[in-house]
Amino acid sequence: MFALRLLWRDWRGGELGILASSIVLAVAIVTGISLFADRLQQGIVAQSSSFLAADRVLQSPAPVDNLWLQQAEREGLQQAEILSFQSMVYAGEEVDATMQLTSVKAVSNHYPLRGQLEVSDEAFGSSIKTTASPPRGEVWLDPRLLPLMNLEIGDALYVGEAKLLISKVVVNEPDRGGNGFVLGARVLMNIADIPATDIVQPGSLVEYRYLFAGEADALSRYGEWVKGQMQPSHKWLNLKDTQPGISQSLQRAEQFLLLAGALGVGLAGIAIALAARRYSERHYDYVAIMKSLGATSARVMRIYIGNLLLLATIALLVGCAFGWLIQEMFILILQDYFDVTSTPEITLRPFIIGSVTALVCLLAFALPPLLSLQGTSPLRVLRRDLPNSGLGNVLTYGIGVSGIGLLMFWYSGNLTLTMAVLAGVGLTFVIVGVFAWYLLRGTARVGMQAGSSWRLALASMRRRGFQNAVQSVIFSLAIMLLLLLALIRSSLIEEWQVQLPEGTPNHFLVNVAKHEVTSLRTLLATNQLETEPIYPMVRGRLTRVNDETVAKRASRTDPTAQNSLDRELSLSWSKTLPNDNIIVEGEWWSEGSTAAEVSMEKNLAQRLQINTGDKMEFLIGSERLVVTVTSIRELDWDTMKPNFYMLFPPGLLNQYPATYMTSFYLPSGQKHFLNQFLREFPTITVIEMDSVIKQIRSIITQVSSAVELVLGLIIVSGLLVLIASVQASLDSRYQESAVLRTLGAKRELVLGSLVIEFSSLGLLAGFLAAFSAELSVYGLQEYLLRMDYVFHPWVWLVGPLFGAILIGIAGYVTCRKVVNTPPVEVLREI
Amino acid sequence: MINAQNIEKTVATSEGSLCILKGIDLEIKQGETLAIVGSSGSGKSTLLGLLAGLDVPGKGSITLAGRDITSLTEDERATVRADLVGFVFQSFQLLPSLTALENVMLPAELKGVAGARGLAEKYLQRVGLDHRFNHYPKQLSGGEQQRVALARAFASQPHILFADEPTGNLDTATGTQVIDLLFELNREEGATLVLVTHEQRLADRCQRSIQLEGGEIVADKRNKPSVVVSASGQN
Quick one: pLDDT band at residue A440, thresholds 50, 70, 90? Predict the structure, then answer.
């Protein structure tokens, strides 16, 4: 009870404000970010899974053994089945019957297990989302199929022998991208109607996809089991396999959130340490008085630790509530991108993380300064100048740094990241500290020639040399961490945007005949569609490398490459190196080269351990072609532009039959252009990637916004550190200002000198922070995020400017009351 | 009540060790009022700190109500202080975040005594501050702050009251009022009073005064017993 009363009295006296708000902020940041990261992850997993319409997919060219599905059932997994194939469909009666090559997808009743179908009751009408699939006897069609075949909802469509009722149009399927290329307009039907079509026979070119969804453990157990049963023709797919670009972006975003969270806690920790230190310094006299009145050290500690625990409990509850609010705010801002129909599960985990953070923060940051209270001598009531024999600085800082490290490691689960950040912080401490100390000592000489406000400020900076050096380090750390996050955030978002910029090709055209190339180019140009170059394509199989068969070589170098090589590759030729390709080994051919050479894609070359100078044999039709590898190219498969494993010099493949391909960007409003296009070029195959790109974009936007918000939150903790740090020096400033004003110094002079002092410290700290941030971002991008490093000149401008202005303002606002308090009041308290 | 034998106190300074007190022998009877006088740096406050158990001597022994406090740990001395001792300081030493009433309640609260509030109210009324219960120290004048300190000292119902320059921060008139109050209360409570001062008129009000110079007692005189309360004997 006594501790509670003391706590209340301290709170009333304004002693606990910064300490309490630091703890609240630490808990709020961690709880908020964890809650949000949890929900974001659930949202992203749900959305990512929708790319597969499931959590995992088993792909097979033939029906799998029923035992496999029973095993999945035993694991408690949800299941659905898809059968897809190309087929002509018919409509109308014999005379005016129309037919069209379509991509048929027959699904079982539970499809889709993840994500939703977007359907409409009219072609190009407004759509709704549904998790239902076509019932038996009905078929749902791609909207552009209706005008193309002169059909309406309610008409009949023949798929093979089966007559099906057109009941809806299907605007989008969740797994359109994950399902490989969609060739031709979509026809979605129930898998139970397949026998009636009489299309699928043994040996038909069809693809079976078995969808599974359920708990992560069960999925991975089943995955292991099924991999043991699989033949080479089977594939076990997850998001990583189908959308490596998205998977990587998400992984980086998650790391960024973790890093940001860890830094946020670090910053809040510093704020707690500063506030606790100031609190305990102000309480040395309290403790001395209490001890002179008969309180034992144990009693004092019981009171203060009780106080701290009470404060922590209150701050914890408030922090958790704020954390919840922060997360709700995130969700509110991001609701456009979140699937609002699914309410993510709220777990206790984020709150536990928040509570443990609070506990560790208190133990590591608040307890050491408070423990030093114990050593206060009661003799201090007679001699106030008596030094306090508390814990040494090294031990205090050591405990604090260990606390940050422990939290970061626990929070990020990444030892490299933790060590990198700690090393960065440690280095900053030492380098910045020493540099600041020397620089501040040097201000004395400058001060002699300066005007009065400046002279006062510089003298004050020198007098408090050590404290100011420590303060500069803290300012620097805070600014550095903010700059660091801003830098990483920019590169992440820029990289994502570069990956799929506006106008990314979203339709591929394949099977273009040589005689169609010119008219195709004209049609695309008259419709003002942005088009990639048109590439020729010759189908050929890689058979030998040097004197070894490819199968043998692959089994030796990379057995997983065997599948991808056991099919025909698209071979193309080009006079010049495609725009996004980079030569990493060898040289691109000189113009007019007639040599038998090839340029190979880097990953495939690595998997087959092929270097320049190696000889490769291709089987094209029935002819053999032997070429030498003269260059190896690196390229990005996620750019949605035509790319080739093998590029030859022009002329070398002239004698073989070639088709052409290209990709172009079709704005969503011009989708009907495809109908005109297909009427003019009925034999060209259009692969529609627009909905996939839309989905990827939506995830990227969602994650980018999250990253921005987290950065905002970290800035708040950075500001809190700045304020706590300014507050720490407040007591001695009160005294000095009172003495100066008693001696006749004007209010403006004192205030001016304070602003100059803080701005100069801020400028110095900002400059040093820019240096450390640039160094750290280099390390992080190079070794952790695996991104290319670029120099950031703006950091060197923004850092010092931001430091000077922000710390100047923080100093002004915090210290204004120093000059507004009548000197007599201050002096009376001394 | 207090018995100091051959006490010495040496402190380390940047120019070597400095002997502040040299072989002090002092006996103070129960209920006696004693003034320690001397110039600045003569060791007055150091001696007070040692006698009150706030510090330990380098040599010699001090017994307080029969307990040898020089052999006790700091925590054990704290318990002795809680049981026996009250303080009044030159700089008042009130806690700024506590009201006048809360400051006076503090010793009783630390001891865990029930009815701390009633006791505090009684003593604040006694020092004439019944209208200032909820004022903070900075809202009080110097004299009022020292009266709160007096109330706090007596609220712990001490056997021995130590006062370090109790009028040092006060003007003469206010100082006189505070001293009157101090002696009045002391008479009522029957406590032993040890007072450090450099004011002769204040020292004269005590039954006995010792003078320190260079860490040694150079004079020990008995004054006219004008304010004797329950002195059981003379030195």
Answer: low
Instruction: Report which of A272, A262, A263 is spatially closest to residue A400, judged by C-alpha positions.
Output: A272
pLDDT band for A179, please (50, 70, 90 cuts).
very low
Q: Which residues of B touch A829 (CB under 8 A)?
A: 96, 138
Q: Is the pLDDT of residue B107 over 80?
A: yes
Report the candidate in B43, B32, B34 with the shortest Cα–Cα distance to residue B9: B43
Among A579, A591, A723, smallest CA distance to A643 is for A579
Q: 3-class DSSP state for residue A544?
A: strand
Nearest CA among B8, B4, B35 for reference residue B21:
B8
The Cα–Cα gap between A586 and A605 comes to: 13
Domain that holds residue B142: 2-222
The beta strands (E) that lie in A683-776 are given as 685-688
| pLDDT over threshold 80, residue A436 | no
Tokens of B87: 């303080």
Q: How far is CA A334 from CA A38, A43, A501, A666, in A?
A: 14, 11, 21, 27
pLDDT at A182: 52
Q: Compute the distance between CA of residue A812 and CA of residue A351 in angstroms, rounded to an integer.
A: 37
Cβ atoms of residues A387 and A294 within 8 Å: no
Chain A environment of B140 (Cβ under 8 Å): none
Greatest mean pLDDT range, A93-97, A109-113, A254-258: A109-113
Phi first, then psi: give them for residue A127, nearest 5 degrees: -110, 160
Whole-number pLDDT of residue A675: 76
Burial group, residue B135, by CB count within 10 angstroms (0-12, 13-18, 19+) = middle
- Mean pLDDT calculated for residue range A666-677: 81
Chain A residue with the nearest C-alpha to that of B52: A292
Q: Within a domain: residue B229?
A: no
Instruction: Choose, out of A382, A734, A825, A829, the residue to mutate when testing the contact with B (most B CBs < 10 Å).
Output: A382
Q: Please give the pLDDT value at position B232.
A: 38
Contact between B48 and A829 using a beta-carbon 8 Å cutoff: no
Q: What is the ipTM of this complex?
A: 0.85
Phi, psi of A212 (to 5 degrees): -130, 140
Q: How many domains does chain B have?
A: 1
Give the CATH number of the domain where residue B193 resides: 3.40.50.300
Q: Model confidence over A704-741: pLDDT tens digits?
A: 777 777 777 777 777 777 777 777 677 777 777 777 77
Q: Are B100 and B92 in contact (CB under 8 A)?
A: no
How far is Cα A504 from Cα A149, in angstroms, rounded to an integer?
Answer: 30
Residue B232 lies in a domain: no
Task: Please indicate if any CB of chain A lies within 8 Å of the CB of B93.
Answer: yes
Q: Could you read off the pLDDT of B196-221 as tens digits, one per residue?
A: 988 888 888 899 999 999 889 999 98
Strand order across the beta sheet in which B59-64 lies: B16-28, B2-13, B59-64, B67-68
Mean pLDDT for the stretch of residues B107-130 = 87
Q: Tell me which residue in A15, A293, A383 faces B97 most closely, judged by beta carbons.
A: A15
Q: Find the helix or strand (DSSP H, E) in which A822 lies.
A: none
Whether B55 sits inside 8 A of A286 (CB atoms) is no
Q: Indicate whether A446 pLDDT > 60.
A: no
Please give the Cα distance from A485 to B228 (Å, whole number). Answer: 76
Of A430-444, A587-601, A603-617, B169-183, the range with the lowest mean pLDDT is: A430-444
From A9, A285, A379, residue closest to B54, measured CB to CB: A379
> In A530-668, which ranges are continuous DSSP H helix?
550-557, 561-565, 602-607
Q: Residue A784: its pLDDT value, please? A: 62
Residue with tokens 């400017």: A801
Q: What is the largest CA-CA distance in chain B?
A: 52
B81 contacts in chain A (CB < 8 Å): 291-294, 378
Domain contains B227: no
Per CB-CB distance under 8 Å, the chain B contacts of A291 are: 74, 78, 81
Average of per-residue pLDDT values in chain A: 79
